[in-house]
Amino acid sequence: MPPEALPPGFVLTGGWRVLERLGVGGYGVVYRVEPVDSPGRYFALKLTRNTAEGRALRELTLLLDRAVHPNVVAVHACGRWPDLVTGHFYFVMDWVPGPPLHVWADQHNPSFRQLAETFRRVALALDTLHAGDVLHRDLKPEHILLRDTEGDPVLIDLGASAYTGAPTLTTGPLPPGTRHLRSPEAIRFHQRHWRHPDARYQSVATDDLYALGVCLYRAATGHYPFPPDWPADVLCAAITSQPPVAPSELNPRIPPELDAIILRLLEKLPEQRFQSGAELASTLAPNRFTSEAWATPLFGTDTPAPPRKPPSLARARVRDLETRLSRPVLLVVPAVLLLLAVGWLLHGWRQTTPRVTPQIDPLEGHKIARHANSHHSEAVTDSPRANPIPVTVAPVAPPLQDPTPVMKPPAPPAKPRAPSLARLSKVALACTGLACSSSTPYVQHRPIPPVAECPAGADETHERFGIEQGDQFEGSIGENFGTPFRNITVKEGYLMTNVHRKFKKLPAGAQLVTEIIFTNERVYGRIREMRVDGDVYPVCLVYYEFSDVGRQRLPGGDEEHAVIFNLLHVRVVERFREILGKDW
Ligand SMILES: Nc1ncnc2c1ncn2[C@@H]1O[C@H](COP(=O)(O)OP(=O)(O)OP(=O)(O)O)[C@@H](O)[C@H]1O
């Protein structure tokens, strides 16, 4: 039985009876359970979805040892299912009966004073974690549950937390996290270092405090400072350089002091934020908020606040572009040409980008920023953008695993060219928040990618999933397993290939983080990392066609874009080779 499908009444090894499923996250599924020998006492049981339990053990270690606090969920037992030794790992913690923070704010509609008190307690809990060298790193409204309607908060999900001596979870520049709650400095770091395999962002307390500011903004206004469903590059650019709309502009009931506190938490520079949970907590001390404004509920029911506009995507696009255009190489271009390009781009973007559609909550009369599902932890990703070629695939962040050193021949120097309007537009189009970290917009002649070794541990993964060198299976690029199948446009960088159908023990839908490299003739896909049910495995796979590594480029594309068909073969290899036509 799959771990996420245990029915009510099912009893797990260890004597825990399942009552209901509370949630499914990236790595675990959480059930409300009761002990068989003590029915009526409720607990939450987090069961890993995969038998590899790195994150769960880490979380358990923290909850048992370092993160013991009345406002952090307490853990009581652990075990494995179905087999005591080899089964899925689980741990049992307090069941928190109330809703997550944003749902509480929207539906219970507490007073500003209650909200401040809830956040004061979260700030104190954070301060204790930080004092013990623990960083939460994935604070979001979904991870702050309310114990009761008064708003006593409980922090959950420390699976991504950092603590001294903890095993590293990822080997990319950023730790796991959720994009719209990442701090500006973390995103800036990613923009600068995503091509550098050894770069690691060191989270600090002010990252958690920034995320807490995002949670507070969401609770007090019904919106995120920057909507999570914005295209990734625009969202990242907005987080790093666009000031958020003042919360009081979205919800005029917000007392000025709270407005200032939220904006300070969201400062772009960490040194301008609160420096510790304790500092924030003292600013939120209840005796400071005596005015009438603090006693009012967050949102009006009798006289609903006039709907205000959430931050505009078009404005963010302009700022994004402004940021990019301020790069020195472009300063020499006459302003009039820039304006023309901006106008043209905005026109194109308006037609091609999703819009943020506010949805009115009928109960409270305030708007809730709409976003697809709950937001699971993820790495920063890039996004599709306006492109003259039909379908562009969204690149993703580089792999989480240790990239293997690549034996690179010296790169041919890029030809300097004088800026022209055509080139400018092209650069602006091709230049994403992440891709902008590269200083060369494009090169004309691309070398065949050099030989590189497989990442450490790939053999073990192959064995685990029953695949061996020379095996070939179908992969597809794009959401919905790539369907409908079609020609797509890819850029160099990273994108996600899916295992298209089950192959040996490889499940359909397993995600293959693929490095795309292309020459003038071929597109190479090198895969060093596979993600299955939230777990990450090193692998050594390549795109493959007939007896050749890589895929033929189809007509279309340009120096920046290559067109390929999105259903393709993936082959297990012993190393990444460079020679065309070489049989395996
Ligand atoms: N102690 C608890 N009491 C009540 N509900 C809980 C508890 N712990 C978790 N949940 C519910 O289960 C959901 C998933 O839990 P959690 O976030 O810990 O899983 P995850 O796999 O780490 O997810 P993510 O992908 O967000 O990191 C939570 O969003 C929450 O709704």
UniProtKB/TrEMBL annotation:
GO terms, molecular function: protein serine/threonine kinase activity
SUPFAM superfamilies: Protein kinase-like (PK-like)
Chain positions recorded as ATP binding sites: 46
Annotated signal sequence range: none
Listed Pfam families: Pkinase
Compositional bias ranges of the Pro residues kind: 398-416
Every Protein kinase domain range: 16-290
Region (Disordered): 398-418
E.C. no: 2.7.11.1
SMART domains, per the entry: S_TKc
Highest taxon, organism lineage: Bacteria
Keywords from the named record: ATP-binding, Kinase, Nucleotide-binding, Serine/threonine-protein kinase, Transferase
UniProt xrefs under InterPro entries: Kinase-like_dom_sf (IPR011009), NEK_Ser/Thr_kinase (IPR050660), Prot_kinase_dom (IPR000719), Protein_kinase_ATP_BS (IPR017441)
Similarity comment: Belongs to the protein kinase superfamily. NEK Ser/Thr protein kinase family. NIMA subfamily.
Name under which the protein is recorded: non-specific serine/threonine protein kinase
Organism: Myxococcus fulvus
